[in-house]
Amino acid sequence: MATSSDGTNDSQVESWELKLEDRLVGTLIFEAQDMFWSDCRFRPGPAWEDFRPLNDRSREAWRRGDREEARTADDAIMTSGLVLVPLKGGAPITPVMVRVDGDTARFRF
C-alpha cells in the first residue's frame, strides 16, 4: 500500500484509476477541491506514454494562447473514452476534462 508525503495511505483518501479502455493511464489521488475542479497527485501508469502526446498538445496550446488548437486537443481527449474508476469501489466516472502536468492532475465531471 502506497503512503503519501503526509503519511496517509492512498486507500484512506479518494483515489481513481484513470483508464483508457482497459489500460491504466495513471492514478489520481485527491488533494483539494477548486470550484468545479478536483486537484490530485498523479502517478503515471503503463498507458501514460500512449496518452501523453495528446495531453501535452492541449497543455502547450493553452500555454501559447492558441484557443482553437487547445479546444481541438481537449475535444480529442474527452472523446478518447477516458474513465475514472474509484479505488474504493463504485461506478466509473466519465470526466468532462482531465489535465495532467507532471505529478499533478485535475479533473471535472
Question: Helical region count?
Answer: 2
C-alpha geometry: globular
The main pleated sheet reads as: 6 strands, antiparallel
Portion in helices: 25-40%
Strand order of the largest sheet: 4-1-2-3-6-5
Poorly predicted tracts of residues: 1-10
Mean pLDDT: 88
End-to-end separation? 27 Å
Entry keywords:
single chain; 109 residues; alpha+beta; 2 helices; 6 strands; disordered N terminus
Overview of this structure, please?
Helix 1 packs antiparallel against helix 2. Strand 2 and strand 3 form a beta hairpin. The protein is 27% helix and 38% strand. The protein is of the alpha+beta class and 109 residues long. It has a six-stranded antiparallel beta sheet with strand order 4-1-2-3-6-5. The protein has one domain. The chain is globular and about 40 Å long. The protein contains two helices and six strands; from the N terminus they run E-E-E-H-H-E-E-E. The N terminus is likely disordered.
